[in-house]
Amino acid sequence: MIKHIVLWELADKDQADANAAKMKERLEALVGQTPGLLSAHVSRSFAGYDVALIAELESREALEAYQNFPPHVEIKKWVGSIAKNRTFCDFEC
């Protein structure tokens, strides 16, 4: 199993709550439609970065497929337009 963790700092702090809610809705909706994506949890942070994603995927191959899955690519483009900073960590467990 792969854990995929992404942290974002959002550019517009006045819209952070609304954008985080939209990120949660869109990213969590990928579960069940993205092959190999077992779970996705998005939360608004109270310290550090503004938003966190913790996703579980079946394998490294599933992570690669997820990164290129067209609905996810569309979300990544939108998030990239509202995010100031992003970091991530992927690991096997």
UniProtKB/TrEMBL annotation:
- Give the PROSITE patterns listed for this entry: S_R_A_B_BARREL
What is the protein's species of origin? Answer: Allofournierella massiliensis
Check the record and name the InterPro entries matching this protein: Dabb, Dimeric_a/b-barrel
Domain Stress-response A/B barrel, residue spans? 2-91
Q: Can you name this protein?
A: Stress responsive alpha/beta barrel protein
Superkingdom? Bacteria
